[in-house]
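This part of the workshop introduces the protein records we will be handling. Each record describes a single protein and holds just a pair of labelled lines. Instead of coordinates, the fold is spelled out as a row of discrete tokens. To make this concrete, we reproduce a full record directly below:
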Amino acid sequence: MQTIFNELIDSYIDNKVGIATDFLSTSLASNLKSNLTSLLETNQLLSAGTGNDTEVVHNTLYRSDSIYWLDRKHNDPHENDFFDLIDRFVEHLNRTCYTGITGYEFHYTFYPSGSFYKKHLDQFRNNPSRQYSMIMYLNTNWTSADGGQLRIHNTDHKQDIFPTNGKSVFFKSSELEHEVLLTNRPRMSITGWLKVG
């Protein structure tokens, strides 16, 4: 995994957007996708909002995805495998880049066909604890006709990233505005933040 961790970190250092194509193994991505599918079938996902615990706004004109928070308390073996992977990545990141990450939070994210998330920053204005954003994709056989790209708004250009299975994207939560373009088929991911404090 160290090679994949370094791929993610090195591409972040070079371009402000880290990308590792096989951050999630095929088997882990498949198991997590099965979990998300089961949650969908049992209506356990919640409409996503914007803001933090003290101020949440639900506006489907701004974002139209739904989420379910991962938690070790669920005692789900696949979620725990995911958390073990993130623990190893955070340890490697802190050791090699002195980032001082002390925690994280992640949720499943589901975008039905016809959904999107308008341009935004991930770090709250009243809470700077989110340091790095991470997204891991759970979509097999994705094509350009499916849409749903993650669009990163860099200072001088836009970068579109396809949400292909196992890929991870990593960037500074306070720096880069981004959006999810209109998706033409159901789109699944795990989204979260590495945090301090």
